[in-house]
Amino acid sequence: MTRAAEARARRKFRVERWVGHYLANPIVLALNRIGVNTTLATELQTIGRKTGKPRRVPVAARFDDTGAWVISQHGTRSGWAANITANPRVRIRQRDQWRDGIATFEPDDDVTARARTFASHPALAGLAAATFRALQSAPVSVRIAFTDHAS
Q1: CA angle (113, 118, 123) in 5-degree steps
Q2: Which residue range forms the structural domain that includes residue 75?
Q3: Among the listed residues 115, 116, 59, the one whose alpha carbon sits nearest the alpha carbon of residue 83
Q4: What is the pLDDT at residue 112?
Q5: Total domain count for the chain?
Q6: Across-strand partners of 42?
Q7: Please, which domain of life does this record's source organism belong to (predicted)?
Q8: Average pLDDT for residues 96-113, to the nearest whole number?
Q9: Are 135 and 16 in contact (CB under 8 A)?
Q10: Does residue 141 fall inside a structural domain?
């Protein structure tokens, strides 16, 4: 990556982090607290690497029978991904139920193909991939393997 590309990625990361931290995440979390859930995002809970306290962040997730896929758009630079690096035990909300799991980074996974699976309908797959691409700086797929049993 060239110096100019690295500088653009750092600027993009700072803007995206600010928007997420101060605008998008608080709105989604507040709506979740009062019972207004969205299919566009769910909550991921990690343990803070510095504080040891639970930290929640909205993420887009694709669930299957054994776990979930999420994409860290900024790689391990995002706060929640750095928390996973320090402690991979997480909780993720699947509809109205919290699920325990172990998160692992999957750097060999095709992030663009993975992002297409997040679409609610196959006709929207291109739009889902384009949205992820517009927001990312150093994306990596994250697999969350459930360690509990769904009830």
Answers
A1: 85
A2: 25-146
A3: 59
A4: 85
A5: 1
A6: 59
A7: Bacteria
A8: 94
A9: yes
A10: yes
Q: What dihedral do alpha carbons 118, 122, 123, 124 form, nearest 10°?
A: 0
Classify residue 2 by its DSSP letter. Answer: -
Distance CA 136, CA 116 (A): 14
Rounded to an integer, what distance in angstroms lies between the CA atom of residue 49 and that of residue 78? 12
Q: How far apart are CA 4 and CA 151, in angstroms?
A: 50
Q: What CATH number is attached to the domain comprising 108? A: 2.30.110.10
Q: What global pTM score does this model have?
A: 0.74
Q: Provide the 10 A C-beta neighbour count for residue 52.
A: 9
**In what helix (H) or strand (E) does residue 45 lie, and over which residues does it extend?**
strand 42-47
pLDDT one-digit tens code per residue, 120-145: 666 765 666 666 666 666 789 999 99
What are the Cα distances from residue 138, in Å, to 27, 107, 111, 128? 25, 11, 10, 17
Report if residue 16 sits inside a domain.
Answer: no
pLDDT number for residue 51 = 96
Query: Does some domain include residue 4?
Result: no
Tokens of 57: 């962040």
In a domain? residue 123: yes
